[in-house]
């Protein structure tokens, strides 16, 4: 670590994501930090680590955790303290420590002097009496945990509490050491956790410990958009490009990271930060926005629009069902209108001429009797789906999904759905409710990456990342009473699965 200043910062990140996200995550950290910063990536217990990753930088350490981490107990905090303990042995001269989430990413260069100034200006107190905690947030659960409160009093000497976020929590080594020295006591606190009272200790204990037993000084180098839709609702990033381009105007200089980003380099906002060329472009645009330089912004906008138009002209698509039917076969299938009762059943659709397992209905348990039918044809280089559903009057509840698989194995799966502009107002809600699954028992919302408008159609681009290159996956089209969908379904024409 040549030219490393005395008193470095160790960042800890608990990493449970796919291999495709690991190296971009490391490279992004290195791009936004200098010799003053070290990263300890704490991977799951027993997970294999590619030896080549150890050689990326002497400022990055990859370790395997010694225990399974869970969302609602002490193990997330214990994982960061495990990284802290590793740093004590391998980075002995560090003076500060910060915890990062794996779905937070640095978006501008870490400014150590600014972080130290913010830390010096901070003053945090424990204002909440453990015997009279509020009835909101996590405190409503802590109130019901007398054993946890009792241990804090007896073993920690703590009578008052405060809250904190773990994402970007930045404090002196001496304050974090107060927690690390009490790992056994932390485990005993964790043992008091109850599944019906989910409390993430990492959000209620560090600040309490720093303020009650330590300096009371801590700050954050990551901003979390708590006021926006969270990933459990959206499954995607809630960071907007405007947030990055206007950081200088809206965030103090010690803030260098944002949360939430989707944990995939395929996600547009994530790709913008983890790719070297787009990082450089974001920095140029942010400088132009901060300076109010309209000429620079216009030049970059023209560049981006010309590039986008060029790439769009080179796109090639084929019908979603291109592999369904053999040569000479009728390239169409249909389900004649029929009455189906929604009782939670799975209905194979092999009679429509599709390969075995390529199409099926998965109904909800509503008990509604529906009149359902659809037609699938290959129409002008695309697959045209016309789906009809009539149900009980006034009942607009989801009744199920029509699942379709293009029979193209591979980690990456892209679906383009085109909807005629005249039908957007009536049918867009259904398109945005698409699902995706590689396991028929778990069907989360599909990831809608971006949309494009032309004079005739609106195109919705879904892109999914599978877990294994040989698995298949289904896109699910929602079934709603009174719905008449007319969609064009397409996939890339370039052998994407083989390339991925």
Name the helicity range. 25-40%
CATH architecture of the largest domain: Alpha-Beta Complex
Q: If you average the pLDDT, what whole number results?
A: 89
Tell me, briefly, the overall form: globular
Please tell me how large the radius of gyration is.
26 Å
CA-to-CA gap between the ends?
35 Å
Low-confidence stretches: 1-5, 496-500
Q: Count of helices?
A: 17
Supply the CATH class of the largest domain.
Alpha Beta
Largest sheet: 8 strands, antiparallel
Number of strands: 24
Structural class of the secondary structure composition?
alpha+beta
Relative strand content: 25-35%
What is the count of distinct domains?
2
CATH fold-type name of the largest domain: Spore Coat Polysaccharide Biosynthesis Protein SpsA, Chain A
Could you outline the blueprint of secondary structure elements for this entry?
Blueprint: E1 8-14, H1 19-32, E2 37-43, H2 51-54, E3 60-64, H3 75-90, E4 94-100, E5 104-106, H4 112-121, E6 128-129, H5 139-142, H6 146-156, E7 160-161, E8 169-172, H7 173-180, H8 183-190, H9 206-213, E9 219-220, E10 222-224, H10 231-234, H11 241-245, H12 247-250, E11 257-259, H13 268-274, H14 276-291, H15 294-313, E12 317-319, E13 332-341, E14 346-348, E15 359-363, E16 369-379, E17 382-390, E18 400-404, E19 412-420, H16 424-431, E20 435-437, E21 448-453, E22 457-465, E23 474-479, E24 483-492, H17 496-499
Parallel strand pairs: 1-2, 1-4, 2-3, 10-11
Antiparallel strand pairs: 4-8, 5-11, 6-7, 8-9, 12-24, 13-16, 14-15, 15-18, 16-17, 17-24, 18-23, 19-22, 19-24, 20-23, 21-22
Helix pairs in contact: 3-7, 6-8, 7-9, 13-14
